[in-house]
Amino acid sequence: MAAIDDLKNLLSLDIRQLETLADILKNEKTCLSGSDTKALDTLTREKNAILGEIRERAKQKIRTLVAMGFRPDSGDPSRFIRSAGLDELYALWQEADSKLRECHVLNENNGRIINHLQKRLTRLTDIFRGASGQQKLYGAKGQQTTVSSRTVLASA
């Protein structure tokens, strides 16, 4: 069936590009720790290009699945593929999903690093401007909060 072959090809492309994306995200983490902004810029462009291609293929996959009888409101496409007894296609779908989840975790980790770097930069900027006159404490969730009369436990 041509639709099944199309899906296999699309998923194989996804898998290869998700492996490349994982490598890019690992390199991005290295660049973040080394503050290599030129390399980060290049990696960001590569990452965005790959993500654009993956998004386009996602649309193609859904259109192909719909042509095969899948209803998007019926739930997860992998369930449809599995119920149709398409074992090879199901294995490819699962592999692509696993690689996508790996990229998601790597990207979240890089996001936390960027968030930390932004907070550090903000603190340094405050110090340079002399705006860091108020004391800071860590709240219940680990975020910094400024000490105010409401957060002081006792005063003389």
Automatic annotation (TrEMBL):
Role of this protein: Required for the efficient initiation of filament assembly.
Lineage, top-rank taxon, reads Bacteria
Concerning Pfam families, the annotation shows: FlgN
Q: Which family does it belong to?
A: Belongs to the FlgN family.
Q: Does the keyword Oxidoreductase apply?
A: no
User: What organism is this sequence from?
Assistant: Marinobacter xiaoshiensis
* Cell membrane recorded as keyword: no
Keywords noted in UniProt? Bacterial flagellum biogenesis, Cell projection, Cilium, Flagellum
Task: From the Swiss-Prot or TrEMBL record, give the protein name.
Answer: Flagellar protein FlgN
